[in-house]
Design brief:
- The chain is mainly α.
- The radius of gyration is 20 Å and the shape is elongated.
- It has one domain.
- The chain starts with 7 loop residues before the first helix and ends with a helix.
- Helix 3 crosses helix 5 and helix 5 packs antiparallel against helix 6.
C-alpha cells in the first residue's frame, strides 16, 4: 500500500478483480504445464538415450562445457521447459563421463541456454507477434 499509494480496498480489488489473482492462476497453470510436459519429454527414454550419445562427444573438461552449453542452447530455443530439464540431464551424464570437470560450471553451462529461449519457438514475444500484434502493443 505504501509503494503504490492505494487504499486497502483498491489493493484487494487489484488481486481479486478479473485482471488480478484469477488471471495469475491461469498463467501459473500454463507455466506449470510447460515445466511438467518439458520434463516428461526430456525424461523420455528416446531423449535420454540421445543425450547419453551426445555426452560421449565430451572428452575433457573444456569440451564438456562446450557440448553442454551448445546442446542446452538448442534445447532452450525449442522450448524453455524442455531445455531446463534436458540441460540438467545432459550435465549429469557429462559429469559421469568426464572426470575433473567443475560440476558448478557444468551446471551453469546447462542453464546458459536460457540466454536464447526468449527468442526461440516458445518465447512470449515471438508468439505474441505471430498473433498479429505490433511491437508497441507487445511491450505494454
Amino acid at each position: 500500500m505504501v509503494g503504490t499509494a492505494q487504499t486497502p480496498i483498491q489493493l484487494v480489488n487489484a488481486w481479486g478483480a478479473n485482471t488480478g489473482f484469477w488471471n495469475l492462476l491461469a498463467f501459473s497453470m500454463q507455466m506449470a504445464l510447460v515445466l511438467v510436459l518439458g520434463s516428461a519429454m526430456a525424461s523420455a527414454s528416446v531423449v535420454k538415450n540421445f543425450l547419453a550419445k551426445i555426452a560421449t562427444l565430451a572428452h575433457d573438461p573444456k569440451s564438456a562445457i562446450l557440448v553442454t552449453t551448445f546442446v542446452s542452447v538448442i534445447c532452450c530455443w525449442l522450448n524453455w521447459g524442455f531445455g531446463l530439464i534436458a540441460g540438467a540431464l545432459l550435465a549429469k551424464e557429462v559429469a559421469r563421463r568426464v572426470h575433473g570437470v567443475d560440476y558448478r560450471l557444468l551446471i551453469a553451462s546447462a542453464y546458459s541456454g536460457f540466454v536464447i529461449w526468449h527468442a526461440g519457438l516458445s518465447g512470449s514475444i515471438p508468439l505474441t507477434l505471430s498473433g498479429g500484434y505490433t511491437i508497441g502493443e507487445v511491450t505494454y
